[in-house]
Design goal:
Layout (H helix, E strand, L loop, with lengths): L8 H11 L6 H10 L8 H20 L1 H5 L1 H33 L4 H29 L2 H8 L1 H9 L8 H32 L5 H31 L1 H17 L2 H15 L5 H10 L5 H26 L4 H24 L9 H29 L6 H29 L10 H13 L18
Helix pairs in contact: 1-5, 1-13, 1-17, 2-5, 2-17, 3-5, 3-7, 3-8, 5-6, 5-16, 5-17, 6-14, 6-16, 9-10, 12-17, 14-16, 15-16, 15-18
């Protein structure tokens, strides 16, 4: 977008925000995977579909120069790609939520730490390869090579074990519930019928015995038909049950208030990361390979932040953890202001070290905010709609981040910041600093006694 398409920072920020919109409607994918199984399976078929949606756009972008040169077509293809990535993320989140619920609260932090640490290892390799590729390969070759990753994801679906037994048990529960309701009426009806035939003799009893056989067969046939109808109506019943469960869950202040705080904490901060990328490459003349190395440091610090949280912070009060996280993020913004103002030069600190330390600290501190959100979300998911409810929680986080990105794009445009004009960038970072401290005033929405481990 910067080098090939020559887009301004605000335009790039806006298009990236639009491309990430599929991450804000994750409950739709969760409802699909939870309530509408494909061939009696809720996870693997949707992993396959999402992998294909992630794979095709990269191939098209890599093979078609006109499409990747058009901002509209590029944004459309990126939307499709993010649709596949978000859908796969929902399915994986649901599987992790199931594991968290079955393992118990004492292991919830360990499971989330394992998940994030695995992602961090992948991020380290991706940042190293990405920095090298940007410096040594044409952009179309990078896209084609990158399409191998969704292909590996597609192949990995073979190793995901999923049995239709859970689906069958759910259907049987529905049938048994209906059968229990019908059995009461049948019992009363049977009692009346038996009393009316008490005076019959032996011959009549023999004839009645044959009729009872036919009636028994008819009841079995009706039960079989009811079973088939329950299977065919299961998507509707599951959708209705999922919607009811979501409404019931969000009526609870223990859920609504924390989620409202997490939404405010992201939406109030104008995200101008794209502008900082332009500044680092155009003004500071940092190479792509170095920025890839900076991301490696960031991923290592993410792993370190995950370990520190799981080892030392998860038993602390959640209010204190979140306040510490936002004060730390405010300090990172101050470092960016120093970088843009070039005040660090008089102390002999190079630009590269400011960028490295800023990236490292930001990713570590963000984990102190993200880990309790993930653990809390995973433990609040009731059985049967793990994907839907966890996806809704994550969508609140993603939507608020998207709104923060739109706010950052609007701020960039209002301050007339362009790829050659960064005079007001320090002012924009000052506004971001105020937005970072603002959510601390809303910490009353977080219950006072809740810790970072469990509600």
């Amino acid at each position: 977008m910067k080098d090939m398409m020559k887009l301004s920072p605000s335009t790039s920020q806006f298009l990236v925000s639009v491309a990430y919109f599929p991450w804000s409607i994750k409950p739709i994918y969760g409802i699909l995977s939870d309530c509408i199984p494909i061939r009696q399976r809720k996870r693997v078929p949707y992993l396959i579909i999402s992998s294909c949606l992630s794979l095709l756009p990269w191939l098209i972008i890599g093979l078609s120069e006109p499409l990747r040169s058009s901002s509209n077509f590029l944004t459309l293809l990126l939307i499709v790609q993010n649709l596949g990535s978000a859908m796969a993320d929902v399915v994986i989140d649901a599987m992790v939520a199931e594991a968290v619920r079955s393992a118990g609260p004492e292991f919830a932090g360990d499971l989330q730490s394992l998940s994030w640490s695995s992602m961090a290892v992948g991020g380290i390799f991706g940042s190293l390869l990405g920095g090298y590729a940007l410096s040594n390969l044409p952009i179309n070759v990078i896209y084609i090579i990158f399409s191998a990753l969704p292909l590996f994801q597609l192949v990995s679906c073979i190793f995901v074990e999923e049995s239709p037994k859970e689906f069958e048990n759910m259907v049987d529960n529905i049938v048994h519930d209906r059968a229990d309701d019908q059995s009461i009426d049948t019992a009363f009806a049977g009692k009346g019928s038996g009393e009316s035939f008490k005076y019959e003799g032996t011959r009549r009893r023999k004839g009645a015995h044959k009729k009872n056989k036919r009636r028994s067969f008819a009841k079995r046939y009706d039960a079989h038909e009811n079973h088939n109808k329950s299977i065919s109506s299961r998507p509707y019943l599951s959708l209705k049950s999922a919607f009811f469960s979501l409404c019931t869950a969000f009526k609870q202040p223990a859920i609504l208030r924390p989620m409202a705080w997490f939404f405010i904490s992201n939406a109030a901060i104008p995200n101008i990361s794209t502008v900082m990328f332009y500044y680092q490459t155009e003004v500071l003349h940092l190479e792509a390979s170095f920025l890839g190395t900076a991301r490696v440091i960031g991923w290592f610090s993410l792993m370190l932040g995950t370990y520190i949280y799981n080892r030392y912070l998860k038993h602390k009060k959640l209010r204190n953890i979140l306040m510490f996280a936002h004060v730390g993020l405010a300090i990172i913004t101050v470092l960016d202001i120093l970088l843009v103002s070039q005040l660090h030069i008089q102390y002999g600190i190079a630009d590269k070290y400011m960028v490295l330390w800023g990236s490292a600290l930001a990713d570590a501190i963000n984990q102190f905010k993200m880990m309790p959100f993930l653990i809390l979300s995973g433990q609040l998911c009731p059985p049967g709609i793990e994907g839907t409810l966890f996806a809704l929680f994550m969508s609140i986080n993603n939507l608020s981040n998207t709104l923060g990105s739109f706010l950052g794009a609007a701020l960039t445009s209002a301050l007339n910041i362009s790829s050659v004009q960064f005079d007001n960038l320090a002012l924009g970072l000052g506004v971001q600093l105020i937005g970072t401290l603002l959510p601390i005033g809303f910490l009353f929405l977080i219950p006072r006694e809740v810790t970072g481990l469990a509600p």
